Amino acid sequence: MADETAQIETAPAAEQIDNEAGALVATNTEVAPPTGKKVVKKIIRKKRRPARVQVDPDTISSEPPPQTGTIYNIYYNKWAGGDKDQLVQTKSKGRCNVAKDSGYTEADETAGSYFCLMFARGLCSRGPSCSKLHRIPGVFDIVPPNVDCFGRDKFAGYRDDMGGVGSFMRQNRTIYIGRIHVTDDIEEVVARHFAEWGQIERTRVLNSRGVAFVTYTNEANAEFAKEAMAHQSLDHDEILNVRWATADPNPMAQAREARRIEEQAAEAVRRALPAEFIAEIEGKDPEARKRRKIEGSYGLEGYEAPDEVHFARGAQAVNPHGREELELEYQEPLAIEDGPVPEANEQMLEAPVPAPRESGGILSGNTIAALNKAKISIAAKPKTASSGPLVAYDSDSDDE
């Protein structure tokens, strides 16, 4: 047989993208010279990894907690009443490892699913069959303001101990970490352990007190980190006390938060406006920048007016466009020569000019003129003739 088969050459994989969502892996980005041979790129589709079962379901016991009160609440699995033993804290039985435990679940097929609370605590026994997400929150995970990232309802105010779900009255992205073992590298240890749960914006550590404040860029990451690091330990055997942080009274922190809110509002406006308009405002359009440079000089060579002067409006505006609206209000309509006069203008011309107000008087000239007109009209009113009185009527009879 003289059939010639085309030689298929598989290019070696040059780069593989490790993506849990199952991305297409690029094999080779270089363009091979034409050799007359058919080159086929091999596409490797990586399968999505299922979520790992963190705890064996057989090891989970449903025994009731020890009796510390008088009434047992079946909904909260706690005893009501009795002595409160809040000062004694026990270490958490599990801890989440994002690199090993993350994966797809049944919640990935449902839009708007919340994150798994047991996964954050490292105690989820359902794995890929869980109805919640098994990953950390991202930038594009939008959560309603009245619930947290786990779907729990928020309240109007915080608890006295700043624990719990939190409040929907204020966007809190800072968590408080107490009972940290004091070392020389405490700041590096805190940043290393808490950077696993999201992007950190700012970290503040009080070395003498063993206290740290961690601020995340996203509120959902702060909520996830608070539950994931509660009753955990860092490099030593301490048990962390993780709570919500109160509002920072520092004026610099308040100014920084106000600036962040303004930047978010500006970004929202920037996305809503057209790209051409944004480019003109920000000076990225070359034609608009050239036109602004010519118009902003106002005939003065080398002068460029600032934005406050160029965009000013009013009678004292330097820019002629800023006086157009004001001039249009006082501009009289032009009449055609030897043409008919509009009725409105004719009435304005025939209307009497109001008398000026006399200085020192109580009433104005317009009021006095109106009173005089009313007096004249009353005086000029003709009198009606009366029928006259009834005379020569002296009958005392009731019949008449």
From TrEMBL:
Domain C3H1-type: residue ranges: 115-137
Pfam (any one): Torus
PROSITE patterns registered for this protein in UniProt: RRM, ZF_C3H1
Molecular function terms, GO-annotated: pre-mRNA binding; U6 snRNA binding; zinc ion binding
GO biological process: mRNA processing; RNA splicing
Domain RRM: 173-247
Function summary: Involved in the first step of pre-mRNA splicing. Required for cell growth and cell cycle control. Plays a role in the levels of the U1, U4, U5 and U6 snRNAs and the maintenance of the U4/U6 snRNA complex. May provide the link between the 'nineteen complex' NTC spliceosome protein complex and the spliceosome through the U6 snRNA. Associates predominantly with U6 snRNAs in assembled active spliceosomes. Binds directly to the internal stem-loop (ISL) domain of the U6 snRNA and to the pre-mRNA intron near the 5' splice site during the activation and catalytic phases of the spliceosome cycle.
Protein name (database record): Pre-mRNA-splicing factor CWC2
UniProt organism field: Bionectria ochroleuca (Gliocladium roseum)
